[in-house]
Specification:
Blueprint lengths: L3 E4 L5 H5 L12 E4 L4 E8 L2 E9 L17 E3 L10 H6 L1 E6 L1 E7 L6 E8 L5 E11 L5 E10 L3 H4 L5 E2 L4 H8 L6 H5 L10 E5 L20
Parallel strand pairs: 4-10, 5-10
Antiparallel strand pairs: 1-2, 1-7, 3-4, 6-9, 7-8, 8-12, 9-10, 10-11
């Protein structure tokens, strides 16, 4: 599962992903992005890449009542073709969700409390989750786009913390993921592999991150 992430180095978005942040909200550093919030998402258009703000929590156009069932924030890579909710988006509405780290909670033996970890690249650089998006409407009927982060099996680093991890795309696979001409399911799914754990690091952080109201650089500082 991926339920929280950080996008703090927003000044590098343009250079890293070759996209211009047209919405100033995309440039606000964030250290505790939570479900249901608006997040920056990169899509491919005929004229090039475009950065949009979308709500994290997938609602396809046919789902009118958001209260009927929870809107998923994650989608398992292994079952995308089996889920009518995600199968059309896998073919036509793939996106990149930029981040520079994410959180996962590890169970503590003999305790009901879980220890949060912050996971990032060793070079502390930006990367992209593989995502899907949908065109829909909010509860007032206004046009809205929503998105979901795809998850996959864990690499060696993540396996010690949790049994899932977000599908982080290799830089060589980001353009292919956005390519509208790539529609062979097996070719698309082959991009969703556990990221090389040798390039990543994980360390424990404060339980303050458990509250979606918490934000700030102190959340990604390591604790003893």
């Amino acid at each position: 599962m991926c339920g929280r992430f950080a996008l703090s180095d927003t000044q590098q978005l343009s250079l890293r992903f070759e996209v211009e942040p047209g919405d100033e909200r995309a440039l606000t550093p964030r250290y505790n992005v939570a479900p249901s919030q608006l997040i920056p998402v990169i899509v491919e258009q005929p004229e090039g890449r475009e950065l949009r703000m979308m709500r994290w929590g997938f609602r396809p156009a046919w789902k009118r009542d958001a209260r009927s069932t929870p809107e998923p924030i994650n989608a398992r890579a292994e079952s995308l073709l089996d889920r009518p909710m995600f199968r059309p988006a896998l073919a036509r509405k793939r996106c990149l969700i930029p981040a520079d780290g994410f959180y996962e909670w590890q169970e503590r033996p003999g305790s009901k409390l879980k220890q949060p970890y912050f996971i990032r690249m060793k070079d502390k650089g930006l990367f992209a989750f593989a995502g899907l998006f949908a065109d829909t409407a909010d509860d007032r009927g206004s046009p809205q786009q929503t998105c979901v982060i795809i998850t996959t099996s864990p690499n060696d680093l993540m396996a010690a913390i949790h049994n899932r991890m977000p599908a982080i795309l290799a830089r060589s696979g980001e353009q292919a993921w956005l390519d509208p001409e790539l529609n062979e399911p097996e070719a698309v799914l082959s991009l969703l592999q556990p990221y090389d754990g040798e390039q990543m690091e994980a360390y424990p952080v404060s339980t303050a991150v458990s509250s979606p109201r918490s934000d700030g650089p102190e959340l990604i500082e390591t604790i003893a």
